[in-house]
């Protein structure tokens, strides 16, 4: 299976600085992830702004009956513009997630995500992607958008 590419764009009704401050703190990931994923950060990240080289450990249940550890690294940051996280250990053969931020005006920020991912297990992974994985990933991003609307009314 070759890598898949998904893009998502969300408007956040906050300034670029406020939006960046929220998304650059790994502890806020739990607030954006749907409860059925049972997302748990296991690294001591409370109050820490991310930095290049930061390793973040999680425990997730991406699918009912399957719980796994997930480790990502923040590989690149351009303050108030973008950051990138790459999976180091986890359920995907590849996970490369770019988060881009752009001020639309003084009170609104556009967040654009570009995700490249690959499911392991060759042809079996391709089938799993068609039947389940892509829908699950898209659902997580839809849930994140709903959480943003709830957190930033």
Your description of this structure?
By secondary structure, the protein is of the alpha+beta class. The chain has a single domain (4-151), classed as 2-Layer Sandwich (Alpha-D-Glucose-1,6-Bisphosphate, Chain A, domain 4). Helices cover 27% and strands 42% of the residues. The protein contains three helices and seven strands; from the N terminus they run βααββββββα. It has helices at residues 16-23, 29-32, 122-151; strands at 4-12, 40-41, 55-63, 66-78, 82-89, 94-105, 108-118. Strands 1-7-6-5-4-3-2 form a seven-stranded antiparallel beta sheet. Strand 4 (66-78) and strand 5 (82-89) form a beta hairpin. It is globular, with a radius of gyration of 15 Å.
Describe the structure using short key phrases:
alpha+beta, seven-stranded antiparallel sheet, 42% strand, single chain, 3 helices, 27% helix
How is this fold's topology laid out?
Elements lengths: L3 E9 L3 H8 L5 H4 L7 E2 L13 E9 L2 E13 L3 E8 L4 E12 L2 E11 L3 H30 L2
Question: How would you sum up this structure in a few lines?
Answer:
This is Ligand-binding SRPBCC domain-containing protein. InterPro entries: START-like_dom_sf (IPR023393). With 153 residues, this protein is of the alpha+beta class.
Report the sheet with the most strands, covering strand number, pairing sense and barrel closure. 7 strands, antiparallel
Structural class: alpha+beta
Give the helices and strands as they follow along the chain: EHHEEEEEEH
Shape-level CATH architecture: 2-Layer Sandwich
Roughly how much helix do the residues carry, as a percent range? Answer: 25-40%
Bulk shape: globular
Beta-strand fraction estimate: 35-45%
Low-confidence stretches: none
**Number of distinct beta strands:** 7
CATH topology: Alpha-D-Glucose-1,6-Bisphosphate, Chain A, domain 4
Report Rg. Answer: 15 Å
Report the average pLDDT across residues.
93
Please tally the helical runs, counting DSSP H or I stretches of 4 or more residues: 3
Number of domain modules: 1
The CATH H-level superfamily is: START domain
CATH class: Alpha Beta
Strand order of the largest sheet: 1-7-6-5-4-3-2
Terminal CA distance reads 40 Å
């Amino acid at each position: 299976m070759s890598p898949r590419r998904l893009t998502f764009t969300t408007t956040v009704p906050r300034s670029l600085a406020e939006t960046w401050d929220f998304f650059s703190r790994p502890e806020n990931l739990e607030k954006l992830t749907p409860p059925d994923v049972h997302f748990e950060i296991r690294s001591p990240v409370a109050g820490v702004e991310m930095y290049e080289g930061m390793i973040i450990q999680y425990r997730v249940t991406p699918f009912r009956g399957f719980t796994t550890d997930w480790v990502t690294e923040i590989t690149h940051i351009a303050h108030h513009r973008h950051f990138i996280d790459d999976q180091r250990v986890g359920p995907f053969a590849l996970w490369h997630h770019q988060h881009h931020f752009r001020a639309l005006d003084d009170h609104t920020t556009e967040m654009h995500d570009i995700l490249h991912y690959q499911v392991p297990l060759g042809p079996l992974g391709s089938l799993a992607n068609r039947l389940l994985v892509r829908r699950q990933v898209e659902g997580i991003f839809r849930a994140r958008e709903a959480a943003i609307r709830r957190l930033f009314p």
